[in-house]
Amino acid sequence: MLSRAVAQIFSPYQSLNLSAFDNLKLVVAVLSNNAQECHALSADVSIGGKLTSAYLVRWGKHFIYCGRCNAYSSKIDEVTHLETIDPESITVLQPPVLSMQQVSFMCMENAHFDHC
After folding, report:
1. Which end is more exposed in the chain, N or C (fewer Cβ atoms within 10 Å of the end residue's Cβ)?
2. What does the alpha-carbon distance between residue 29 and residue 23 come to, in Å, rounded to a whole number?
3. What pTM was computed for the model?
4. How far apart are CA 99 and CA 13, in angstroms?
């Protein structure tokens, strides 16, 4: 369940099924385009009692879940229970910051190959 602030910004992208890393790039690009400070991360997250490596974006008090690190198709979500994130496993990432035009191309490319 997305908080109001996260849903407001990312609702146009909820129908996409990008890879976890592409979701990470998308979230960073959208926030950067809106002059919002954010940090791309990888961390172990407990999902169903099992730790899995995932991509996250920390934006203020929000941790936006981009998907498991090896996921080729994932939805943008939000980590609402911070205790599910293993703080010792957090690694700060430096993904490329895409322009919104590049994000559009990435989404079009994904939609094209998703239907081929």
Report:
1. C
2. 10
3. 0.86
4. 15
